[in-house]
Amino acid sequence: MAKRLGILTSGGDCPGLNAVIRGAVLKGDSVYGQEFVGFIDGWKGLVEGNAIPLDRRSVRGLSSQGGTIIGTSRVGPYREPDGGADNIRQRMKRLGIDGIIAIGGEGTANAAKRLFEDGVNIVGVPKTIDNDLAATDYTFGFSTAVEIATEAIDRLRTTGNSHKRCMVLEVMGRHAGWIALFSGIAGGAHAILIPEQPETIEQISEWVRSVVHRGRAPMVVVAEGFTFPDMDQAHSTKGLDGFNRPRLGGIGEVLAPLIEEHTGIETRATVLGHIQRGGAPSAFDRVLATRMGMAVSDLVADEGWGKMVALHGTDIVRVDFADALANLKTVPPQSYADYRQLFG
Amino acid sequence: MAKRLGILTSGGDCPGLNAVIRGAVLKGDSVYGQEFVGFIDGWKGLVEGNAIPLDRRSVRGLSSQGGTIIGTSRVGPYREPDGGADNIRQRMKRLGIDGIIAIGGEGTANAAKRLFEDGVNIVGVPKTIDNDLAATDYTFGFSTAVEIATEAIDRLRTTGNSHKRCMVLEVMGRHAGWIALFSGIAGGAHAILIPEQPETIEQISEWVRSVVHRGRAPMVVVAEGFTFPDMDQAHSTKGLDGFNRPRLGGIGEVLAPLIEEHTGIETRATVLGHIQRGGAPSAFDRVLATRMGMAVSDLVADEGWGKMVALHGTDIVRVDFADALANLKTVPPQSYADYRQLFG
Amino acid sequence: MAKRLGILTSGGDCPGLNAVIRGAVLKGDSVYGQEFVGFIDGWKGLVEGNAIPLDRRSVRGLSSQGGTIIGTSRVGPYREPDGGADNIRQRMKRLGIDGIIAIGGEGTANAAKRLFEDGVNIVGVPKTIDNDLAATDYTFGFSTAVEIATEAIDRLRTTGNSHKRCMVLEVMGRHAGWIALFSGIAGGAHAILIPEQPETIEQISEWVRSVVHRGRAPMVVVAEGFTFPDMDQAHSTKGLDGFNRPRLGGIGEVLAPLIEEHTGIETRATVLGHIQRGGAPSAFDRVLATRMGMAVSDLVADEGWGKMVALHGTDIVRVDFADALANLKTVPPQSYADYRQLFG
Amino acid sequence: MAKRLGILTSGGDCPGLNAVIRGAVLKGDSVYGQEFVGFIDGWKGLVEGNAIPLDRRSVRGLSSQGGTIIGTSRVGPYREPDGGADNIRQRMKRLGIDGIIAIGGEGTANAAKRLFEDGVNIVGVPKTIDNDLAATDYTFGFSTAVEIATEAIDRLRTTGNSHKRCMVLEVMGRHAGWIALFSGIAGGAHAILIPEQPETIEQISEWVRSVVHRGRAPMVVVAEGFTFPDMDQAHSTKGLDGFNRPRLGGIGEVLAPLIEEHTGIETRATVLGHIQRGGAPSAFDRVLATRMGMAVSDLVADEGWGKMVALHGTDIVRVDFADALANLKTVPPQSYADYRQLFG
């Protein structure tokens, strides 16, 4: 019998969320006769029973639209007093919902795994703009963020050259430096600083000086989660992992004056921020998100509860929540070393 | 001992050629002490011994530049009287070239395979904007073409809606419909017509009528290599494959008046043409091209003559020319069927 | 007393139409308590009494949207049997409409002038993507078209350079060459061909040869309305103005093979077409269109029937329909000569 | 007799500088036989006699390139010991320079005026990305900055909507709010805060609450020079003008937490920064800059020392330095009031 499904989007905004919703609704409706509702503002809507119907007409033209028409929040499903698996199963029963499609990141996958173990029919679509989920080659939103960051580098370079300045661009990437690595390679950055690979301010300054020595204006891309061991106490506070983190503002804003101080080269920081996660998705992300939406409709039709869709090579496959969560996908040391080799 | 290598780019222009050259030169210089020259205008430069030195300075800032600084042409290496393996080996000897890096499409791979079999030290980097080489998940340039085609669809849709017209966009894709499929999904096209899947004008008109019936302006994306069995003799000439091809202009220009005639719905065609293969590459293509350039430097260092670099999943791997050429990578019927399911 | 107004958009699609509608509705509602309806598909909707209410909510988010939410067509208001000033006045009375806001080009302005003379309360907003209305410094849509054409030139140039080809881009401009002139200057074209300035194929070929002689790949931008006196009979048909026009396809498609034939230089044409008039408007056009929408709300409040809004310098002013229609704004010979001087 | 001219670019980077240089060199060479050198890094290069030749070949392809190939700095011409009119005249004599073309902002115009009064042959091209020079309708670079800021607003809005957050975007505009006004109108911002019009945090919070009340996510655009009278002492320091300025970071970063505190609505700030002044110019800016470059070549040919080129309507005209400097062009209260009326 055709199923009735509830979709929710959780966590930070990400280009492609709407395309996933559209892909699931169009294929589900056409092929399986599935019906859909959208829970408003993520798990909150599920827990509170706040849902709107999602039919073909509601998803028209959505592939090119950034954001999510059903809203998102950072609330989790186990919050008191209305959350938890029992409450959610009752809520689903009352709304006539056969299963949940949860589109979200690591936190969502963890919650979904627990709900599944507690007997809730749930499947997932991985969402992380940082591209740091191990189970999938790429996540939608990442390509858009990289395109935006690369355009920013292209723009900053001309100004760096005009003024003979060092330009620092801070991009997203809390635990993994994929956006920094990809945009840095695409934009021809001279230094790419990522959370996986702490570097001393001495090393960074050495790189910057060497670029200036070759007659060029240094372009540094730094992921927000990058830290350096010798960040002094005036600028930092020690994190739980033992590394120092910036006390105020972003790492780019801490780094730029330190580079200037160590090298004598005028240095300016730009923090790209939320611009990376909004607006129209790249075509690549629209296709990936649409395919994931279509595939999750298949997954539900097969009652593949407890699984997520993922990209392997050019194929959309299915993985267990547990596998998806086993490891954070960070930049391998060899990939980082390869990039460094460009600069001898 | 460090090698001296000649790079050539052959066939149609493609965003990312310069990034490949830069990746090879930077890594080859930094890691292996390789030296490079560029043959001017593809095989022609090799055959005629027309080459320029390529050092670090020559490739500065190239990752973001479209085109190829060493030029390209459609000339092959076996042309008389200066071509052929013997002449080319002598030419290489005179120029002190240890090996050739040939960046090109199917024709180039075929020629490179034959040269390799004739004893020339040669490796390859696959280049096809149509993404139709079987040995690699994606080729650089394809992502850029898809982004450009998708932006064109986004623009044409608003005009289609304003005028209640059917809009037809012809994109590249002579033997494979990847650009049409990806940009069509990304842009939410109502019909995607590809070389792999002939459709009658009756079927196409039926789709168009059904979109109008749902109150929308039909958006049709058609790959240049698409044909339809019932194309009448006034518009077509029969190809060697038995299918009809447009007599004049592109398939989009043949299709639009036929759709208008069959449906009574005002229909306009746009042929995107060369815009798809020029200009700044997308960030995705810059990264892929840079990585392929770096990997071909490794390949040469390992004396992996007779092989090409390729993308498998997220890895750059090595494949034999023969494997690369075994099959054209066309859109699988299932992928096409999946897309059709979006529209019930 | 607050007025009730009917808005219509007529003629070819143009980026900024929606922003005009939004500007008029928001200001009219906020400042004057005006009410609005939109006539569907231009004059057709007025003549047939087909209208939808336009309130603040209907115009949300419209400044960035291409196209027109009320549709457009090329139908005029004097068509039989329902058109004409008498019928329209009756129609307005029945719908309780105090005045018409007609957004359109020369045809619309002519019709509006006649309706005004026949006693209909009507005001206008000039719309021509070709920028050829004399009464206004710029029309919205023009800037967007120029940006799109310039990006196309940027892309085509790299391919021209890679292949040492002459690239021909046909842009819009039936009677005036503004899009060709602006995009050609912005893109650094070597020849800009406009309707106002016929040139022989001999002269054009001379320019192309001279560019090749300087070691560059020629970039030619041609407005769709350009003609050359020596276009031969195989390619042309004589227009009412005595000049020859292409028999089939666009002027770019006629020109390219002729250039190739006369110069021996490989030449390729691209016809940009409808892409120029769809999609998101440039910021400049959004501002201009919004300001014109706001100003037309003022104009109606002042009962300035028979007038249009226009841009003079940085100011939005009011002009009579008659003044707006007195002359087509074509590229002055001096401006064209100035551009030619760049190439000595 | 044909003149030999020195060009310099001074102050902050600005899209279009290279197009001005190209326009002057191409026209000067073609029409007047003028010769050009470029002083490296602004006035510094003039004072120190550091110059490079600028011929047709040096300016190839420059119309689309951001930055300035001759560098820029914030150094002035009267610095000791090598500056001052006497030294500069001697320097010009030794280099055989007949006149100076100074491309720069208010500081440059002031210095040029003084040099002219001290007997130096000098003309100017106005450059301010903030568009705040009274003598010209628009300055090049402004359009590019507005396009970039508008794209940022488009992106931030989707994220604001997804999270029901208030998004604050800080754009450039130290003394004049033109970028904020134009991008805010183009992007449909709900509040635009400019230096010319201080507003209390209470008023801003009232606007934000009212937008949320209408069910939308508030978008606030703030110019970097905006201040509010009730900025508390923890966040501000009093400027010479008696207004408070942010103590640390940009005004956007001060404003966002205050809005959140006053309204209870989650609020996030993005500071666009240097991205606004780098990279490829918009087509509009390329045309304006090219025309100004061409016009300054005419101005020099006419020995119009002591004057600048400027845009009036669609014409390039000449103005005295003194007139250009008489007033800062700020946003008129009426324009600001007009925009406010959109929101009733």
Describe the structure.
Chain A has 344 residues and is an alpha/beta fold. Chain A folds into two domains: 4-140 and 281-326, Rossmann fold (3-Layer(aba) Sandwich); 143-277, Rossmann fold (3-Layer(aba) Sandwich). Helix content of chain A is 40%, strand content 18%. Chain A contains eleven helices and 13 strands. Chain A has helices spanning 17-32, 43-48, 85-95, 106-117, 142-163, 178-187, 201-213, 251-263, 283-301, 321-326, 333-341; strands at 4-9, 35-39, 51-54, 99-104, 122-126, 166-171, 191-193, 219-223, 236-238, 244-246, 267-271, 307-312, 315-320. In chain A, helix 5 crosses helix 6 and helix 7 (201-213) crosses helix 8. Chain A is elongated, with a radius of gyration of 22 Å. Chains in contact: A-B, A-D, B-C, C-D. The interface between A and B is large, with 44 and 43 residues.
List keywords for this structure.
homotetramer; 344 residues; alpha/beta; Rossmann fold; five-stranded mixed β-sheet; four-stranded parallel β-sheet; 40% helix; 18% strand; cytoplasm (chains A, B, C, D); ATP-binding (chains A, B, C, D); metal ion binding (chains A, B, C, D)
How do you describe this structure in short?
The structure is a homotetramer of 344-residue chains. Chain A is α/β, with parallel strands linked by helices. Chain A has helices spanning 17-32, 43-48, 85-95, 106-117, 142-163, 178-187, 201-213, 251-263, 283-301, 321-326, 333-341; strands spanning 4-9, 35-39, 51-54, 99-104, 122-126, 166-171, 191-193, 219-223, 236-238, 244-246, 267-271, 307-312, 315-320.
